Amino acid sequence: MRTRVAASAVCMLTICASVSHSSELQLFAWPVACELGTTCFIQNYVDHDPSDKTLDFRCGHRTYDGHDGTDIRLPDLADQRKGVEVVAAASGRVAHTRDGMDDVSVKVLGKAAIAGRECGNGAVVEHENGWSTQYCHMAKGSLRVKPGDRVNSGQALGLVGLSGNTEFPHLHFTVRYDGTVVDPFAEGAAKGECNSGRSLWQPTLDSVSNYRPTEIINVGFADRAVTMDEIETGEIKQSPPGSHSAALVAYVRAIGLQAEDEQAIELRSPEGQLIAEYRAPKLPRDQAQYFVSAGRKRGGSAWPPGAYTATFVLRRKGAEIERRSFQVDIAP
């Protein structure tokens, strides 16, 4: 039930630049047409640690070694197939583009097949005063700009995809100043430093800077046992339970889990009776993502009608840090 989530862009620099003159600071709009925390989530931040260890801008580990951007992921491939726009984070000129790479997980293709093209389909936009932004892993055939085009802040560049060195649908977004990587959450933070620096997000994006050490990105019910692949593809959403389903299963997927985290999920009948539960063992190590489920096979000719409720609880160092309840209505 666990898996490593990896994503990479062309450049793997980890140095964070500090801009000499505050007047030159470039502020950025959110580069994906989504609602953070609801229809998209941050999987990885910039790695601030110069060694082989990891450190994000809030002294956590929501990153991996050498990661040079912000990974803005969609909940699953079903959402990606609907078409989610990648937009210019600031006005500027398109310097480089690539298109034509297939939207296939690197787990299928292998890293050798995308060597030198880890960014996948993407674009680089140059802004004023030495700033630039890079947009990676976009959908094949979706790019709407070409080198030399002028773009405005918020203008669509293409769609979120699965091209290049990635296992999940997302945008890898990198900010650079004079060619050096800058963390847009912590401009000016020195190497190895966290809880410092300035946000480069526009003032209207205050919620973007609200650091989320752990997030729930998928919840639902199914009529059978659930796998991680079915959650990732979104296929499991095509199997909702009904009154005559052979089983009733609730599932939750979270990201940013830490070693020793404790997860529990329970399922209750319309009358409030506990009908299934699962308490996962403490995690032996940090996990980029993890899912748990609890379910039960149908005992009679049909499931009693009504609202079935699932509750997921995540505890860290003895304290409850996440709780989510959700329901499914079973008709007669």
From TrEMBL:
- Cross-referenced InterPro entries, in alphabetical order? Cell_wall_metabolism_enzyme, Dup_hybrid_motif, M23ase_b-sheet_dom
Q: What protein name applies here?
A: M23ase beta-sheet core domain-containing protein
Keyword entries, A-Z: Signal
What Gene3D superfamilies does this protein map onto? Answer: Glucose Permease (Domain IIA)
- Which domain of life does this protein belong to? Bacteria
- Per the UniProt entry, the signal peptide is 1-22
Q: Which PANTHER family match?
A: MUREIN HYDROLASE ACTIVATOR ENVC (PTHR21666:SF270), PEPTIDASE-RELATED (PTHR21666)
Q: Which SUPFAM superfamilies match?
A: Duplicated hybrid motif
GO MF, one annotated term = metalloendopeptidase activity
Which part of the chain is the M23ase beta-sheet core domain?
A: 67-184
Pfam families tied to this protein: Peptidase_M23 (PF01551)
